[in-house]
Design goal:
extended; mainly alpha; single chain; 71% helix; 2 strands
């Protein structure tokens, strides 16, 4: 033990004699703690301005900048993934166009017949692609699917885009409109060939009359319903009690009014009629027919009077008195001239028809005379033959 202590004292004496610093303290300012997650981050390196001090604003800006960088990287990854899917679809679509011999620069319609060819392996690849949930991340499956989609569709019949089939297909939307346009003249031509003009006019008038009767009947029926709804609404607004007994003053007032006006149905009677009588039986068919006939014969008079009034108002507006007289004479003479021209035309037409009929009769008369002469000669020959036969029969007897 004494020897060990002696050696230690000798070692200390040598260190003192050589003036060596025996301070064993170590500078730990740049050391990094491996268990501290913030010490190894780039955000917190060299952030100490002074010992045990930091700049919070600078650290916040660094955090925001790093967050933005991470966000941009995430968006770039998403865009790259979407672009990869989009590039696959573009590639497959281009292959479709090439297989079908379709030029995208053509502006017209294209009609092709395509043939689909899928093997068992191709079907299994498509089935796996549709069943998987992460097909975008499986690069091998996407490549197999691209190979399948490139070759499964080919053109079976090459047809020119300017063929007759394309031209007729472009006309398909207008064929129905053309049929509708041609249907009306075709129907009129068919009716003209099968039915005479008189029968066609009679049919049109009869169909128009029937439709007018139906429309008038339905209008009256709806008017009766509207009146009933109005009376019912008025009763509900008054709180009911239409058939309640009236007071002495109201009865006396009704008696006095009966001397100066025609007595009408009471509100109570109208209420019972609305409940018991159906509106269908309140419309008189004869009244409907009479109204239709009166509208047919007299319906044009109001419109004619309105237009005539408008004509005279516009004809004499802003006109001096002497010019108004001239206009009035012209307005009287012009219809008379038109009527006289129509009379002359009708007279000339009837004279021409009479002349034509006389010519036809003259042509027919010689034929009739020859026919009558032939018939007379035939009758005379028959009489001669009959007399000769009678004489021969008498001689034989």
């Amino acid at each position: 033990m004494s020897s060990v202590s002696l050696l230690f004292l000798c070692f200390i004496w040598l260190l003192i004699d050589a003036e060596i610093d025996v301070d064993l303290s170590v500078d730990k300012t740049n050391w990094i703690d491996p268990s501290d997650p913030f010490s190894s981050s780039a955000l917190f390196r060299s952030h100490l301005v002074e010992p045990n001090k930091c700049d919070p604003d600078q650290n916040l800006q660094k955090c925001i900048q790093e967050y933005r960088n991470l966000h941009d990287e995430l968006l770039a990854l998403r865009v790259n993934r979407a672009n990869s899917v989009d590039s696959l679809m573009k590639h497959v679509l281009r292959r479709f166009m090439e297989k079908l011999h379709i030029n995208l620069n053509d502006s017209g319609s294209i009609f092709k017949k395509a043939q689909v060819t899928l093997s068992q392996h191709d079907l299994s690849v498509m089935r796996r692609y549709l069943d998987t949930e992460k097909a975008v991340e499986e690069f091998g499956l996407r490549e197999d699917l691209r190979a399948v989609l490139e070759n499964f569709l080919v053109e079976s019949d090459i047809r020119s885009d300017h063929s007759l089939f394309t031209f007729l297909h472009n006309l398909l939307p207008y064929i129905m409109l053309l049929n509708v346009i041609l249907l009306i003249p075709a129907a009129l031509f068919f009716l003209r060939l099968t039915v005479s003009t008189r029968k066609l006019a009679t049919f049109l008038l009869l169909s128009t009359f029937c439709w007018s009767c139906y429309a008038t009947y339905m209008r009256k029926y709806q008017e009766i319903l509207a009146e009933r709804f109005l009376r019912t609404d008025a009763v509900f607004r008054r709180g009911g009690g239409v058939c309640s007994p009236q007071g002495l003053l109201s009865e006396a007032f009704d008696v006095m009014l009966s001397y100066v006006r025609i007595k009408q149905k009471s509100e109570c009677l109208k209420a019972y009629e609305d409940e018991l009588i159906a509106p269908l039986w309140q419309v008189d068919p004869l009244q409907v027919i009479a109204e239709v006939l009166s509208n047919f014969f007299l319906g044009g008079l109001p419109a004619s009077g309105t237009h005539l009034n408008l004509f005279f108002n516009n004809f004499f507006v802003d006109t001096p008195f002497h010019l108004a007289l001239v206009k009035m004479l012209f307005a009287i003479a012009f219809p008379l001239a038109i009527a006289y021209a129509i009379y002359l035309y009708a007279n000339c037409y009837t004279q021409k028809r009479q002349k034509n009929s006389e010519k036809e009769q003259r042509r027919i008369k010689p034929k009739e005379t020859t026919r009558t002469a032939i018939s007379r000669s035939n009758s005379q020959a028959e009489l001669i033959l009959s007399s000769a036969e009678s004489e021969t029969s008498q001689n034989s007897n």
